[in-house]
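in:
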């Protein structure tokens, strides 16, 4: 019996190594990674600048908790706040995962407002910790723990009429993703986002933007909040924030941060030196290699080139994309796998997800275009 608990349907090969947009199996077979380790490998696998930063930090100091001030932790916080300036964040708390980042944001909203209800949206997915799970629309993982979850109002996504009719007076926080990835790359118009910010602000309800898949440039702006022109009370990040080193971050506005006191938040490993070095290096790669612009140009190309006999439309923004297929998406997924290309499924049986490194090569793009066209006859 394998000592490792079997929790997820894995690829039918053992992965051994990776370089930029390719991964290599233990047998030496290369696969184009359009899945990105589930939207994590922002700068590609083993980017030399990120690897060098981790190596240098590992030789200097592997770990110390928040009991000590670390210059690299403060530098990482300043760099992240500067990167996200358009979204208005002022203070950051580092943790270890996206679920933990969402848990912290929701917990602080409850403390600050004194309210015990939260709100989220149908199709949203925010994590497996209890508050994050309370906001997640996935019956399979929520139902076993229903009695432990906090009261959560679940609203239809992108519905202006429902938004206008909802009373948020007893809601501590609304949490929402700029693009609903797991449910099939679902988006909402800018007008809806503007109205959501207006009604939550008027009710004294925190607006928490879950940027775990959309942050750092993947959607063609530094954040999804910037994409829609809003400034939340808190935003959460993880996934590609440190190019694959485990990390999470909750970024608070100045007013939200003013309600947080010493002792309200804590994490032994949050803000560890290795993760901070990887975060700084990741932001440097994004800036130096103009990867936000790359996400815009490649995303635009794919939206034009992939529509055909097999694909009705290409959803999403930047390099968080969904291929809406005419037939079952699993058939196209299998076709691409047979051509050594890894893509992501979704809860929509007609949508495949593309979440590749922002460093993806032109030849890798051309190979996908050819394979999709081939499948369409």
């Amino acid at each position: 019996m394998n000592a490792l608990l079997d929790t997820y349907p894995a690829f039918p090969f053992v992965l051994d190594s990776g370089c930029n947009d390719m991964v290599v199996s233990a047998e030496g077979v290369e696969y184009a990674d359009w899945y990105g380790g589930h939207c994590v490998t922002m700068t590609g696998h083993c980017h030399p600048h990120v690897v060098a930063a981790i190596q240098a930090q590992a030789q200097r100091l592997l770990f110390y908790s928040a009991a000590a001030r670390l210059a690299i932790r403060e530098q990482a916080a300043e760099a992240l706040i500067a990167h996200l300036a358009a979204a208005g964040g002022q203070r950051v708390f580092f943790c270890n995962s996206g679920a933990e980042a969402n848990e912290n944001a929701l917990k602080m909203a409850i403390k600050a407002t004194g309210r015990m209800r939260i709100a989220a949206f149908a199709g949203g997915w925010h994590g497996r910790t209890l508050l994050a799970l309370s906001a997640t629309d996935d019956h399979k993982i929520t139902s076993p723990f229903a009695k432990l979850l906090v009261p959560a109002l679940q609203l239809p996504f992108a519905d202006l009429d429902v938004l206008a009719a909802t009373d948020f007076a007893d809601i501590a926080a609304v949490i929402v993703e700029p693009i609903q990835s797991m449910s099939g790359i679902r988006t909402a118009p800018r007008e809806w986002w503007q109205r959501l910010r207006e009604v939550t602000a008027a009710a004294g309800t925190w607006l928490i933007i879950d940027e775990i898949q959309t942050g750092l440039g993947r959607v063609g702006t530094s954040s999804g909040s910037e994409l829609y022109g809003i400034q939340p009370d808190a935003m959460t990040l993880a996934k590609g924030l440190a190019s694959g080193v485990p990390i999470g971050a909750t970024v608070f506005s100045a007013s939200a941060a003013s309600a947080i006191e010493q002792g309200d938040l804590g994490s032994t490993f949050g803000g560890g030196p290795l993760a901070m070095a990887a975060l700084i290096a990741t932001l440097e790669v994004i800036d130096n290699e103009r990867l936000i612009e790359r996400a815009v140009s490649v995303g635009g190309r794919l939206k034009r080139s992939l529509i055909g006999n097999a694909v009705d439309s290409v959803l999403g923004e930047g390099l968080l994309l969904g291929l809406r297929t005419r037939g079952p998406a699993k058939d196209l997924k299998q076709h691409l796998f047979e051509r050594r290309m890894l893509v992501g499924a979704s809860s929509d049986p007609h949508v495949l997800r593309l979440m590749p490194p922002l460093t993806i090569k032109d030849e890798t793009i051309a190979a996908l275009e050819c394979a999709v066209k081939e499948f369409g006859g």
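note: The chain has 14 helices and 14 strands.
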